[in-house]
């Protein structure tokens, strides 16, 4: 069977869904691989490097029409996959809640689609978890972006001309991105504090050498829903959290927000009044800006200055580290395919009752089949 690797068409998407390393591994399984010319350019992978790894480098039409399985980072429109084989499978980040019509388009085109970001958070699927691999890099990059905008140093420095005090960094939302943001800010020498609604993160924050800022003794404090994700909090909790954050935030130089709730808009964590309480020159990075934003006034794709505070709202942060993000994403995809590989058929066999397959499959046989997308 042929696996096709598509060139990304979305704005400012620099990642690619395969690397020479994963191409070799896929060929090792017995597949042939066709890569669309220019697919790796944004991640500094040349067509020649893909050819040397054993792939056929060709145009989009040939990749689409000749492949049983298509790899992409972001899901292209179904019309961009015209000419695909009947029943071909597309594995990509499909963002069904952001663009349901595109998913209906896949169903109509008879494509089987697998949403990599729906990978269940179970031990067996850890090496296939694209949300983790990409969020980790986004968390790192958020601190680097903040440091670049911040007109001061991060570490404390004792010099002959006097002492520079360490930057105070506050991380809100301590999932995969937040943990990496804490670790990165610590490595740069900042004084780091962090908060989350999930009580389990307290220990994780402290184990990284940061201070945990937590609402205590309030109803509805558990905050942990299924799969380790956060739940929407009670009004009482939200009020207590706002008061705690208000007093803390006024003393911070850098704030990184990463809070998400699956299938819902991102929770609003920082108000305009709280921004006004910060020192001029402070920097906020809103990693949730594309999901509605944690920060009042944050604009997706822009840096804005509000009350003298820079609010950074980069879109698609993992793509800003395209080489590493592609390497990890490509390995996630390979690990996924490898786990379902049928050695005799030399093709993946996605058993319909498998927990992972049920978790990621959005469309099949002309219909939308995922329970979270039932109308
Ligand atoms: P996420 O991206 O969904 O959310 C980011 C963080 O924001 C979470 O920690 C969440 O609790 C927090 N948050 C939500 N609302 C908030 C609010 N109002 N105030 C403050 N914080 C808020 O999270 P994630 O990075 O996907 O990680 C979620 C959990 O899943 C973590 O515990 C992670 O370790 C776990 N995980 C498990 C596996 C696995 O077992 N295979 C894989 C990846 C992640």
CATH architecture of the largest domain: 3-Layer(aba) Sandwich
General form: globular
- The SSE string, one letter per element, is EHEHEHEEHEHEEEHEHEHEHEEEHEEHEE
Write down the domain tally: 2
Report on this model:
It is a single chain. This protein is of the alpha/beta class. It folds into 2 domains: 2-118 and 321-363, Rossmann fold (3-Layer(aba) Sandwich), CATH 3.40.50; 136-315, NAD(P)-binding Rossmann-like Domain (Rossmann fold), CATH 3.40.50.720. The chain has 11 helices and 19 strands. An 8-stranded mixed β-sheet has the order 3-2-1-4-5-6-18-19, sandwiched between helices. The protein has a 7-stranded mixed β-sheet with strand order 11-10-9-12-13-15-14. Strands 7-8 form a two-stranded antiparallel ribbon. It starts with a strand and ends in a 7-residue tail after the last strand. The mean pLDDT is 94. The structure holds nicotinamide-adenine-dinucleotide.
